[in-house]
Every structure is written in structure tokens, then in C-alpha cells.
Amino acid sequence: MTFTKMAQRFLFRLETVRKLRWQAQRAQQRAVAEAARNVSQVEARIDELTEQQRQVLDQTRESQATVRLDLISLRREQFYRGWLEREMQGSAMQLAKARGLLQAEREKLAEAVKRVKVIEHLRDRQLRRHGDEARRAERAVADEISVQNHLRRRAL
Predict the structure, then answer these.
(1) How far apart are CA 94 and CA 89, in angstroms?
(2) pTM
(3) What is the pLDDT of residues 101-115, one digit of tens each?
(4) Over the stretch 64-111, which tens digit does the pLDDT of each residue have?
(5) DSSP designation for 10
(6) Could you give the count of Cα atoms lying within 13 Å of 3 in the half-sphere of its Cβ?
(7) What residue ranges define each of the domains in the chain, with the CATH number in brackets?
């Protein structure tokens, strides 16, 4: 008996789907990174505005400590503090929005990762099954060779 069925190479029929899902996961990782970068930029802007507020407050305290008050400078500092406060409020709203977007992107990434894991699990199962079948076929061939050798030896 000859071995007519050669061990076939493993072929995952859903390989294209797996690659597409993997690419979607990578794209989503980039989207999460971009959203995180945006959050960091807004946080840096808030830190910058906070530092400016502290500097203006220190400057106002210094100018009020002098004997002679300069109402024009005081008014300018008051206007600037108001502007800084409005900027801080706007930045705080931007930060909340950016964090919400980051959370949404992370949830999409989790879903993309789950989709990739499902297809990878299916691929792994099919690969194991293919390996088991190949080993079973190899054992059958080896058994057949052993039987043929035994029969030849007996015939001699």
C-alpha cells in the first residue's frame, strides 16, 4: 500500500478576515493613541493656564503691597484674570470631551481586540485539528509500513 494522501499544508479559510480584523485593531490602536495625545495636549494647556493664573495672582499681590496703587494695572490684571478663567472653563470642557472620546475609542479598541481573539481562537483550534489529523495519518502510514515489513520478513 502506498501513501497516496500527502500531508497537506494548513490553510485557514478565514485568513483574509483575520487580517482585516487585525488591521482594524491596529487602526483602532492608532485612534486611541491620537485621542490620548489630544487629552494630554488639553491637560498641558490647562497646566499652562493654571501657571499663568498663579503668576498673575502673585503679580497682583505684589502690586497691592506697594503704598501707591496703580488702578490701570489693577484693572488690566483683573481683565486678564477673567480671560484666564474663561479659558480655563473652556479648556475644562474640552478636557471632558476629549476624555469622553478617549473612553469611547478605548471601548472600540476592546471590541476590536475581542473580534481578533475570536478569529485567532478559531484559527488555533483548526490548526490543532489539522495537526492531529496529520499525526494520525502519519501513524497510519508508519503502521502500514511496519505491517508490510513484518509480512516481508515472515515470507522470507
Answers:
(1) 9
(2) 0.72
(3) 999 999 999 999 999
(4) 777 676 778 778 888 999 999 999 999 999 999 999 999 999 999 999
(5) P
(6) 14
(7) 15-155 (1.10.287)
CA–CA gap between residue 80 and residue 63 (Å, rounded): 15
**Residue 72 CB neighbours (<10 A):** 8
Whether the predicted pLDDT of 128 surpasses 50:
yes
Query: CA distances (Å), 36 to each of 27, 95, 97, 101, in order?
Result: 14, 11, 12, 9
How many Å apart are CA 41 and CA 98, to the nearest integer?
10
Q: Can you say whether the dihedral through the CA atoms of 52, 56, 61, 66 is positive or negative?
A: positive
| Contacts (Cβ under 8 Å, ≥6 apart) of 148 | 1
- What does each C-alpha distance from 148 to 62, 85, 143, 152 come to in angstroms? 105, 93, 9, 6
